[in-house]
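Example 3.2
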Amino acid sequence: MKTIEFRIIEPKNILTIIPLLKMVNNYTPEEILKKRVLEMVGQNYKCVGMYDGKTLIGISGLWFLTRHYCGKTVEPDHVIIDENYRNMGIGKKLFEWIYKYAKNNGIEASELNTFISNTKSHKFYENEGYKRLGYHYLKIL
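Structure, written as tokens:
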């Protein structure tokens, strides 16, 4: 493994994240995933890619918004690392990159959601200093 490089994926290349997205979302048809991802790049969304050479080995979406209770915030979303690269400290390095990127862009806080069943992520995020504040609800209309 070479040195892992982190960089924002350009909007014109955003569909390169689809294979990694499908690792955690195998229930949404690929054409719908593509359509949604293309819409996301126009909605205060960016995506950081993790590269081993030219190979995309991980991603984290980044949503930017302002909340009345914490100010300007970044929300890491769909954090996915290829299973061949897990447990190597890359997640920690990714979040260090996200915090630095956010601070350099005037962001005051980071918040995120994770699935209740993803207990490994809970421990990771708590070790990163995130605090549980509430529940995330979804209603399909």
